[in-house]
């Protein structure tokens, strides 16, 4: 059973993150702001061969399909080891729900990416929000939430800080490669965090309800 207070807090964190996405879009819409242009240009003018290799590796590693594959394998292995599947399945659903949300918003909002001539990697879809930033934030948030709900260790704080660092790094890589504006990666990161928190909180409540009455059908059958 997962503590109700913890699930409420988790849901509120998710709602706050998703509200942040709304605020970002309400402020910028499809327009390119001054901070977008300045941040993008700074990364464009501070490139190096070695750093480009690192950033391209990050783009490959945190591509949404790769994150789906990695998280699926990782969660399946954990589920087999623990001989429990409910939270692991829920965690995978939460991660993929975040990616799906971003995919849908890209087509609805239709914001254009930075100029093609400055890009170091090929992208064909729209810009807002960033799919890579969403995938990274969703994966890192899911790991933190899973450890917190399963073990409730104080080390969760350190895992969270590591997850934040990874998410920021992936967000920076997208600007460095010239395929996103800063508001794209901020929104993507907030979606990854917010959707995972909300979906996990709601799903864990359902798991609690099922575990609270696991033998209802069997008891009814026995009584008959």
From TrEMBL:
It comes from the Bacteria. Its EC number is 3.6.1.27. Residues 87-200 form the Phosphatidic acid phosphatase type 2/haloperoxidase domain. SMART domains: acidPPc (SM00014). The chain crosses the membrane at residues 12-35, 55-78, 126-149, 156-179, 185-207. Gene3D superfamilies: Phosphatidic acid phosphatase type 2/haloperoxidase (1.20.144.10). Pfam families: PAP2 (PF01569). InterPro entries: PAP2/HPO, PAP2/HPO_sf. Keywords: Hydrolase, Membrane, Transmembrane, Transmembrane helix. One of its GO terms (molecular function) is undecaprenyl-diphosphatase activity. This is Undecaprenyl-diphosphatase YbjG.
């Amino acid at each position: 059973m997962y503590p109700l207070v913890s699930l409420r807090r988790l849901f509120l964190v998710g709602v706050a993150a998703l509200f942040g996405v709304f605020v970002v879009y309400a402020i910028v819409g499809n327009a390119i702001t001054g901070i977008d242009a300045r941040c993008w240009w700074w990364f464009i003018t501070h490139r190096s061969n070695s750093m480009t290799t690192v950033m391209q590796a990050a783009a490959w590693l945190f591509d949404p399909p790769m994150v789906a594959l990695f998280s699926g394998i990782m969660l399946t292995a954990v589920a087999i080891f623990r001989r429990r599947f409910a939270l692991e399945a829920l965690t995978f659903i939460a991660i993929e729900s975040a990616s799906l949300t971003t995919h849908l918003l890209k087509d609805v909002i239709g914001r254009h990416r930075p100029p093609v001539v400055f890009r170091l990697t090929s992208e064909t879809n729209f810009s807002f929000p960033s799919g890579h930033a969403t995938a990274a934030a969703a994966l890192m948030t899911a790991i933190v939430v899973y450890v917190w709900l399963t073990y409730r260790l104080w080390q969760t704080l350190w895992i969270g800080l590591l997850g934040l660092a990874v998410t920021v790094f992936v967000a920076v890589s997208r600007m460095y490669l010239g395929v996103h504006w800063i508001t794209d990666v901020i929104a993507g990161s907030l979606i990854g965090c917010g959707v995972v928190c909300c979906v996990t909180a709601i799903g864990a409540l359902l798991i609690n309800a099922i575990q609270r009455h696991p033998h209802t059908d069997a008891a009814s059958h026995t009584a008959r």
